[in-house]
């Protein structure tokens, strides 16, 4: 397992939360604690009075409880093993000022073959972020009908034509069920072939399975309006996505909300330097929403117009 965890777009997140610097009694909610990189930096920089963190991964929760034992005992930090939607539905973080959701799979999850997220490492075909749930990628591949697989790969993986891969899956699973990641990845590689250098043919298929296993799009769609409702006025939600469907969903919900506005009109992506240091940052996108009316921008030309009107009237 990799011990190195590099939080994606960390400087950009801190910059977009900068209006909270120096404020008292801040409440911060990190819905995707992971290995705590973002959480630690935000905790140290803004010194919130109360922090909540959730994660579905039992290993992440165990580590968080050890790291923050003193703050947990004092009541300043609460760590919960659950999906962030479950936590928000219970309105446990009402009155929050800052929210961060990093929707990517953490490096330790990818690096552990037994978690089944990676097509480069052989492990069980799993992909569950919460190891206690029943649905796995293996169950989808071995039991779902062809039509359902087509919808999953087309809609969630944005695979233009998954029909040949699906036929091969359905044919092969009749004699031997799919149980490992490499078993599926090698089938996709054999059937689809390498279309683009450096882009494994199984990438989009694995992404689609992960999104469906963990209901990621549905959860995000449901949680954002609840978070907005529970936030303090001028509170901010920062969301990092790694998939075009997720980013589009987040952008549209933020853009169409009558309760606030997009702080960054143009999506924020990692710098070239960050992508060199951390290749997993390449597909990351950051959008930030602020609750409440958008401040009016000062009119740069108001004084000039006023002077011109005065001159024309004299």
At a glance:
The protein folds into 2 domains: 10-107 and 216-291, Rossmann fold (3-Layer(aba) Sandwich), CATH 3.40.50.150; 131-213, DNA polymerase, domain 1 (Orthogonal Bundle). It is 45% helix and 14% strand. It is built from 15 helices and 7 strands.
Structural description of this entry:
- By secondary structure, the chain is an alpha/beta fold.
- It folds into 2 domains: 10-107 and 216-291, Vaccinia Virus protein VP39 (Rossmann fold, 3-Layer(aba) Sandwich), CATH 3.40.50; 131-213, DNA polymerase, domain 1.
- The chain is built from 15 helices and 7 strands.
- It has helices spanning 10-16, 37-46, 58-67, 69-74, 84-89, 107-111, 137-143, 146-156, 163-173, 181-192, 203-213, 216-230, 244-256, 272-277, 302-313; strands at residues 27-30, 50-55, 77-81, 96-102, 231-241, 260-262, 285-291.
- It has a 7-stranded mixed β-sheet, with helices on both faces.
- Helix 8 (146-156) crosses helix 11 (203-213).
- The longest helix is centred in the last third of the chain and has 15 residues, at 216-230.
- The termini are far apart.
Number of domains: 2
Instruction: Please report the number of helical segments.
Output: 15
CATH C-level category of the largest domain: Alpha Beta
| Molecular shape | globular
CATH level 3 topology of the largest domain: Rossmann fold
CATH superfamily of the largest domain: Vaccinia Virus protein VP39
Cα-based radius of gyration, to the nearest Å: 23 Å
Uncertain residue segments: none
Structural class: alpha/beta
């Amino acid at each position: 397992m990799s011990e190195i965890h590099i939080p994606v777009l960390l400087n950009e997140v801190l910059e977009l939360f900068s209006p909270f610097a120096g404020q008292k009694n801040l409440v911060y909610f990190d819905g995707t604690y992971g290995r705590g990189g973002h959480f630690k930096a935000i905790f140290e920089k803004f010194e919130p009075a109360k922090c909540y963190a959730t994660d579905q991964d039992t290993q992440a929760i165990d580590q968080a409880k050890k790291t923050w034992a003193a703050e947990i005992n004092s009541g300043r930090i609460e760590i919960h093993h659950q999906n962030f939607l479950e936590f928000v539905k219970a309105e446990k973080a009402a009155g929050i000022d800052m929210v961060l959701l990093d929707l990517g799979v953490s490096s330790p999850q990818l690096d552990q073959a037994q978690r089944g997220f990676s097509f480069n490492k052989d492990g069980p075909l799993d992909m569950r972020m919460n190891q206690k749930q029943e649905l796995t990628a293996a169950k989808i591949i071995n039991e779902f009908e062809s039509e359902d697989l087509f919808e999953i790969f087309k809609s969630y993986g944005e695979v233009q034509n998954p029909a040949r891969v699906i036929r091969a899956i359905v044919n092969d699973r009749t004699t031997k069920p799919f149980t490992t990641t490499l078993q599926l990845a090698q089938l996709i590689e054999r059937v689809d072939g390498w279309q683009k250098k450096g882009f494994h043919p199984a990438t989009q298929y694995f992404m689609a399975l992960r999104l469906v296993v963990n209901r990621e799009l549905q959860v995000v769609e449901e949680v954002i309006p609840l978070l907005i409702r529970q936030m303090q006025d001028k509170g901010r939600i920062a969301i990092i996505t790694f998939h075009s469907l997720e980013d589009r969903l987040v952008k549209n919900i933020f853009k169409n909300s009558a309760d606030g506005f997009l702080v960054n009109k143009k999506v924020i992506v990692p710098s070239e330097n960050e992508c060199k240091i951390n290749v997993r940052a390449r597909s990351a996108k950051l959008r930030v929403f602020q609750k409440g009316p958008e401040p009016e921008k000062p009119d740069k030309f108001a004084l000039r117009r006023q002077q011109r009107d005065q001159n024309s009237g004299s």
